[in-house]
Amino acid sequence: MKNEFNDFTIIPSIRQLKDLDDFLQTSLPIVLLSEVHIGNLGVLAKKCKKHNKKVFVNVDLIGGFSSDKMGIKLLKTLYNVDGVMSSNIMVLSMCKSVGLFTIQRFFLMDSRAFDSSLKSLKSSQADAIELLPSPLAPKFLDRIMENKKLPILAGGFVEDLDSVEMFKKLGFSGVTTSCKEVWLKQ
User: Fold this and answer.
1) pLDDT grade, residue 48 (50/70/90)?
2) What totals of helices (H) and strands (E) does the chain contain, helices first?
3) Cα 30–Cα 32–Cα 37 angle in degrees, nearest 5
4) N- to C-terminal Cα distance for the chain?
5) Is the pTM of this model over 0.85?
6) InterPro entries, per this entry (predicted)?
7) Is 67 within 8 Å of 59 (Cβ atoms)?
8) Which alpha helices (DSSP H) does 17-68 contain, by range?
9) 149 DSSP β-pair partners
10) What are the backbone dihedrals phi and psi of residue 58, each rounded to the nearest 5 degrees, phi first?
11) DSSP alpha helices (H): ranges in the chain?
12) Which end of the chain is more exposed for a tag (fewer CB within 10 A), N or C?
């Protein structure tokens, strides 16, 4: 899975399930199923797997899901999820222990939130980091890279191809975006 970020990767965040079929026709390797609940996750993941796509979810946003040890195991074994996103390092640690790819989300709200994220990064075993919102991400890229060498994604408000190109040139490993116009043109 770590090879997914050897090249710059665009990860579509599917918020409207009607957009999933359009995503499945692209060559993009990973999807973030953003608006899922425990009742439809299995069917959606299976559909993605039929198209050889890797399935990621934000464990903090799955409706009807409990991120306890049993719930995490079910993500891997029953729902066939490949990776997760969360800002909770305890949840990410549990996900990592069952073999899921983990992305730690950093919300750049203020200097205190950033300092707290940096502190948690030292004990985190996440496979990658997502910086949100993307307009602030370039300012913090170097400081994150000084602390840990991991793939770094920009997320939130990635709304045009010019932004995608800028993140690519700055050295980000990829972006997450719910903007269909961005990921459809890849």
Assistant:
1) very high
2) 8, 8
3) 135
4) 20
5) yes
6) GlpP
7) yes
8) 20-24, 41-50
9) none
10) -95, 105
11) 20-24, 41-50, 69-77, 89-97, 111-123, 137-147, 161-170, 180-184
12) C
